[in-house]
Each structure stands twice: as structure tokens, then as C-alpha cells.
Amino acid sequence: MAKFEVLDHPLIQHKLTMIRDKNVGTKAFRETVREIASLMAYEVSRSMPLKDVEVETPIAKTTQKELAGKKVAIVPILRAGLGMVDGMTELIPAAKIGFIGMYRDEKTLKPHEYFVKLPNDITERQLFIVDPMLATGGSAIDAIGALKKRGCKEKNMKFACLVAAPEGVKAVRSTYPDVDIYTCALDDHLNENGYIVPGLGDAGDRLFGTK
Ligand code: PRP
Ligand code: URA
């Protein structure tokens, strides 16, 4: 079974509490999501492999470490996942970006895919799939499915979100047990409209000022 981790770094927790507040406007919400994503990149990349490399400092020759594993692709689930991309690329600037467009039908809560555009070498890369919200898990499951359909392996995927519901975590883990999940918070439950309680509301609307 892959990793499930709640990122309890105090800066992450503090910033997440800030954006849960319904009175926080679009500008501050967007800036803070970006900052949290940057801190998440630090945590999510923690297990990336290293190899020895020779380097000559102004003082002496020495053997040190550099990244050795697969190159990274960040895959936001549109729209709300876009809010996490810049924060992640601040730490991993060479990452390529792939896009999966998905919207959740408000009545059925079922996701609908409307756009997929991925780097050509996506199957060779370590994938960080990003979306602020993991609610029923439908969108994450379909996004992982879209990547698998194109040859990507579950073990090369990490899913990173800000807030998860227990229902969504359970659904993703039972469908794709080899995908690591990182969240900043595991909230209580979903309400009758499929929103996470207490959550932070509709992440896409709050990021982009719609509604
Ligand atoms: C939100 C969110 C996730 C999805 C989570 O997107 O960003 O993608 O809902 O819900 P689920 O786990 O039940 O599938 P939404 O469909 O509202 O689209 P948006 O990002 O364009 O606002
Ligand atoms: N999508 C959101 O943006 N928020 C939720 O609480 C659930 C799904």
C-alpha cells in the first residue's frame, strides 16, 4: 500500500487555517494556496532519490549528492489544481506541466473530463497530481485513470491536495492502492451537496473569483 500522509508542518497548518476563513478574498486566497503548494512540494519531494557526484569546491574535491531519479511532471486537475502549479514550480523549476480538465456535475457529483494535454515523455516522469480538494474522490480517480490509460504507472504518481474527506481518501486508495496521497488536512465528512465539512468551500470559485 502506498503512502497516506497528512502534512502537519506548522506553516502549512497556519496558512490552511487562513484560507478556510470565508472572509478571505480572491487575491489572498490565491496567494496563500500558492505558498502552501510550495511548502507541499518540499514535503512531497522528500523521498526523491539521490546519487553521489564529484564536485570541486574552491577548497577541495569532494563527493556530494544530486537528484538521481525520474524528472518531475506536475499535473493539475483543472481548474482549481492550477492554483497549486506556480508554488510547486518555484521549488521544482524544471518540472514539465500536464493538464487534465475535469468538472464535477453539481447534481450527480460525477466528474466529466473535458481536456487532457500532457508532456510527450509523461510515462518517464515522476508525477505530482495536484488539486486542492479530494471530496468524493471521483475527480482524482478519473485523473489517475486518464494517466494510466496513457501508459503512466501508479507507483510513479503522487496526489497532493489541501483538504481531503475520509470518503475520498478511501475511494482513491481502494481503486489505486499504489498512488501516494498527501494532504494538509483530513476533514470530517462530506455534506449532502458533496462539499467537504468544514473544508474551505468551492476551491475553484474562491481561486478565480467566480460566483
Ligand atoms: C473540485 C475540486 C476537485 C473536485 C473534487 O473541482 O477542485 O477537482 O471538485 O471533488 P470530487 O473529489 O468529489 O471529485 P470542480 O469540479 O468544482 O471544478 P473546478 O476546479 O473547475 O471548480
Ligand atoms: N470541490 C470543492 O471545491 N470543494 C469541496 O468542498 C468539494 C469539492
UniProtKB/TrEMBL annotation:
Q: Name one GO cellular component term.
A: cytoplasm
Named cofactor requirement(s): Mg(2+)
Q: What is this protein called?
A: Uracil phosphoribosyltransferase
Pathway as given in its UniProt record: Pyrimidine metabolism; UMP biosynthesis via salvage pathway; UMP from uracil: step 1/1
Class of this enzyme: transferase
Give the top-rank taxon of the lineage listed in the UniProt record for this protein: Bacteria
Tell me a GO biological process for this protein: uracil salvage
A Pfam family matched in the record: UPRTase
Task: Kindly give the InterPro entries that the UniProt entry links to this protein.
Answer: PRTase-like, PRTase_dom, Upp_B, UPRT, UPRTase/APRTase
Which positions bind 5-phospho-alpha-D-ribose 1-diphosphate?
A: R79, R104, D131, P132, M133, L134, A135, T136, G137, G138, S139, D202
The residues that hold uracil are I196, G201, D202, A203
Give the catalytic activity: UMP + diphosphate = 5-phospho-alpha-D-ribose 1-diphosphate + uracil
Cite the entry's keywords alphabetically: Allosteric enzyme, Glycosyltransferase, GTP-binding, Magnesium, Nucleotide-binding, Transferase
Q: SUPFAM superfamilies this protein is in? A: PRTase-like (SSF53271)
EC nos = 2.4.2.9
Chain's role: Catalyzes the conversion of uracil and 5-phospho-alpha-D-ribose 1-diphosphate (PRPP) to UMP and diphosphate.
Q: Where is the Phosphoribosyltransferase domain?
A: 6-210
One GO molecular-function entry: magnesium ion binding
- Name of the gene: upp
Q: Which HAMAP family match?
A: Upp_B
Please give the activity regulation comment for this entry.
Allosterically activated by GTP.
